[in-house]
Every structure is written in C-alpha cells, then in structure tokens.
Amino acid sequence: MKWITREHVKVDRVACPWLIRKFVDRAAEFYFVTHMKWITREHVKVDRVACPWLIRKFVDRAAEFYFVPAEQVMSEAQRLGATPFDVPAVELGHHGKECSFEAILKKYNLTSDAALVLLGKIVNGADTDNTLWHQPEGAGLNAIAEGFRHLDFRNDHEINAAEWIVYDALYAYCKEMVKGGKPEGAFR
Asked: Is there a contact between 17 and 25 (Cβ–Cβ < 8 Å)?
C-alpha cells in the first residue's frame, strides 16, 4: 500500500509511518510531498477557476495560486518555481479542442472518475466553442462565470473562493448523473 504525507517531518509524520508499518502494512511505501505553486493568467473566468478547484480538491490540497498578467506567466513561473496552467504552449494548457481542466485530469490520472470526466466536458463547453463534446450545460456555466466577473470582487483569489461552490455543485450533479446511468449528463 502507498501512503502520502507532507514533506516537512514532524512527530505525527514519523510516528504514523512507524505505526502503519508495525501494525497495518509491513511493506507500506511512504511518499513525502510538499505543496506546489501554480500560476496562470489574471482575470479568471472558466478554466482558470475550474482548474484551481480541481487542483485543490484532487491534486494538492495546500496548493498556492498566482494570477499574473499573461506576458509575465512564464517568467514568474520560473522565478517562483510554479507550474503554469491555462496558458499557451504548456503541458497543462489547451491541446487541440481540449481545455486545461482536461489536461489536468489526464496528467494526474483522474480520468477514472466518470463524474470528473463529465465535469471536464462541461468546463470544456463553457471555455471553448463547445464543438468537441457539444455539452449543453457548458452555456450555463459560461453565463455563471461571466456573472461572477461582474460582482465587484477585488481580485482573482476572491472570485475563485466565491465561485468554487458552483464547481462543488456541478461535481455533485455529475456524480448523480453517473450514478443514474447518464454519464453524458441530463440533457443528452
């Protein structure tokens, strides 16, 4: 069995592996990870809210996000040691008609969760011309994201904090669709 914990060793991160190896699994493997820094363009809308939600929920619970002018993303990524996303010519960006959310799903092996795959199709429909999946829910998400841009939040961090409830709700919807035998969504 594999176990993951944070990098900086404290008493619980020494005692817990010892206890697990002693009483649960003698062959346990432990991976010590640190939180990552992530960077993208400022003035978020769909993908640049959906991706941080996905990263924080499923990839890195302690992730730090930076939102900078588009022309500064790569230089700031290098300076900060941050992973760029949703910018041209990066691994976690758009590829063909797929959006950055879908690139993250693939990179971090999250495609086995059918609800996340459906959510990726909805995000794609909202963030692109929607010709890849023709996902009807995408138009609604695009309208909601546009509305959040007009609510006078002070910065991209505030928009993300406020809008993540929408992605929690959409993920719950997607789980129900998959559970109910509609992995393409209710409107297809």
From this structure: no
Q: Say how many residues make up the chain.
A: 188
Long-range contacts of 141-149 (CB under 8 A, 24+ apart): 141/46, 141/166, 141/170, 142/46, 145/45, 145/46, 145/49, 146/45, 148/49, 149/43, 149/45
The pTM (predicted TM-score) of the whole model is 0.82
Split at pLDDT 50, 70, 90, the class of 188 is confident
Domain ranges of the chain: 1-34, 44-59+86-179
Task: For residues 130 and 145, give the distance between their C-alpha atoms in angstroms, rounded to a whole number.
Answer: 16
At 57-80, the pLDDT tens digits run 999 999 999 999 999 999 999 999
In angstroms, rounded to a whole number, what is the distance separating the alpha carbons of residues 139 and 5?
A: 39
Position 17 scores a pLDDT of 52
Residue with tokens 């429909």: 125
Q: Which residues of 117-140 are buried (b: 16+ CB within 10 A; e: fewer)?
A: bbbbbbbbbbbbebeebebebbee
92 beta partners: 85
